[in-house]
Amino acid sequence: MPRQLRSEKSSRRRHSEELKSEALALAKSIGVSEAAAQLQLQPSQLYAWRSSADRSDRRGKVEQEMAAENARLKRQLAEKEQEVAILKKASAYFAKHLA
């Protein structure tokens, strides 16, 4: 059977991030189906927004962990550079006094 074409074009609605976050908070408190009905949205839309928010939260946590790891490695590198500088001075001192 051929697919029926709509005679009228439906435009996509763009929702603000504020509306999405409020809708997700409402869905968390009263349930996705009820929140979708109150907001005149499809439940699948709320589920998609929720999974998108979860992904971005996980990405944010990964970025924070990476920043902490970078800071730790920079401190470690600075300590090693100080140790190398001290060893260079010590080797120069002993080379001068042994010769």
Q: Would you report the number of β strands?
A: 0
Distance between the termini: 98 Å
Largest sheet: none
Number of helices: 3
Which percent range fits the helix content?
A: over 70%
Following the backbone from N to C, one meets helices and strands in this order, namely HHH
Quickly give the structural class: mainly alpha
Provide the β-strand percentage band.
under 5%
Report the uncertain regions: none
Query: Can you give the mean pLDDT?
Result: 87
Number of domain modules = 1
Q: Round the Cα radius of gyration to an integer and report it.
A: 30 Å
User: Rough shape?
Assistant: rod-shaped
Task: Outline the fold blueprint.
Blueprint: H1 17-30, H2 32-39, H3 43-98
Helix pairs in contact: 1-2, 2-3
Fold and architecture overview:
This protein has 99 residues and is mainly alpha-helical. The chain has one domain (17-98). 79% of the residues lie in helices and 0% in strands. It is built from 3 helices and no strands. 4% of the residues are buried.
Write a concise keyword list for the protein shown above.
mainly alpha; single chain; 99 residues; 3 helices
Brief overview, please?
By secondary structure, this protein is an all-alpha fold. Helices cover 79% and strands 0% of the residues.
